[in-house]
Design a protein that fits this description.
It is a single chain. This protein has helices spanning about 30-45, 90-100, 135-145, 160-165, 220-225, 235-240; strands at about 5-10, 50-55, 70, 75-80, 105, 115-120, 125-130, 150-155, 165-170, 175, 190-195, 205, 210-215, 230-235, 250-255. With about 260 residues, it is of the alpha/beta class. The strands form five sheets. It has a three-stranded mixed β-sheet, sandwiched between helices. A three-stranded mixed β-sheet has the order 3-4-5, with helices on both faces. A three-stranded mixed β-sheet has the order 6-7-8, covered by helices on one side. The structure holds citrulline (CIR). Citrulline binds near residues 61, 64 and 245.
């Protein structure tokens, strides 16, 4: 089964990215590009076929493709990002996905960022955040409930997206910052708490047998390793300055037929 990782090159305008919880700090664009290339290489090393969209100088945040769509086996839901500056990111992502899935689109006044959607099997947890509103959650539910998914709204506080606060780091384990989301929201899985000193540490990307994980959270990385989770540690400092993390730089989906 072939897994595609859809990515997009770092925009030369990334310094003008949206920021909500972080102070603006200078971003080294060349280093960001290099870190992104290493990220893509990690995806390849785990067996993904990486397909990269060209950089777009008019869309500062467009490297964060996760926010533009949510891909299920049955349908790709094209998001409507909560930040107006990011809305034009979705068209090229929709074009890239159209060959692989029927498309369903989130429409105004709804907003939804893919970073707010955490799928665990057929349970779809959706953060209600500054980026994703209740109408966005309802439209996502309308698109995927007919395919057997159950959509659960989740309250999130203190961070950008649900997946800033919780991600799946093993088939049965959610890594979570319980100050930002109540872990009781996730039924039937084990919860591993981030190290207290590392509030931003809850975002890891499971791919193949490993977890792509930022090198900037060593204490939480130790907790993951103690659970037997194998980590591919990456320095993503420049992407983190743009309030990005590791899930947000790719859209992973299985090729069902081509
Ligand atoms: C934003 O504020 O939209 C971007 N600067 C960061 C988006 C990160 N996306 C994600 O974690 N899914």
């Amino acid at each position: 089964m072939s897994v595609v990782a859809l990515t997009r090159e770092v925009s030369p305008a990334i310094a003008r990215c949206e920021l909500v919880h972080l102070e603006r700090r200078p971003i080294d664009v060349d280093l960001a590009r290099e870190q992104h290339r290493v990220y893509e290489a990690a995806l390849r090393s785990e067996g993904c076929e990486v397909r990269t969209l060209p950089a777009d100088p008019s869309l500062p945040d467009s490297v964060f493709v996760e926010d533009a769509a949510v891909v299920f086996d049955e349908v790709a839901v094209i998001a409507r990002p909560g930040a107006a500056s990011r809305r034009a990111e979705t068209e090229s992502v929709a074009d890239a996905l159209a060959a692989h899935r029927p498309l369903s689109r989130i429409a105004a006044p709804a907003t939804l960022d893919g970073g707010d959607v955490l799928r665990i099997g057929h349970s779809v947890y959706v953060g209600e955040t500054g980026r994703t509103n209740r109408a966005g959650i309802d439209q996502l539910a309308a698109a995927v409930t007919p395919h057997g998914y159950a959509v659960h709204p989740v309250a999130v506080r203190g961070c950008l997206h649900l997946k800033s606060a919780a991600t799946l780091v093993a088939p049965d384990t959610v890594l979570c910052n319980s100050r930002w989301v109540d872990p009781a929201a996730f039924a039937g899985v084990q919860v591993l708490e981030v190290a207290h000193e590392e509030p931003g540490a809850a975002n890891g990307l499971m791919v193949g047998e490993r977890l792509i994980y930022p090198s900037s959270f060593p204490r939480t990385a130790r907790r993951l390793a103690e659970r037997g989770i194998e980590i591919l540690s990456l320095n993503v400092s420049e992407l983190q300055k743009a309030e990005g993390a590791v899930t947000c730089c790719s859209l992973l989906f299985t090729i069902l037929s081509e």
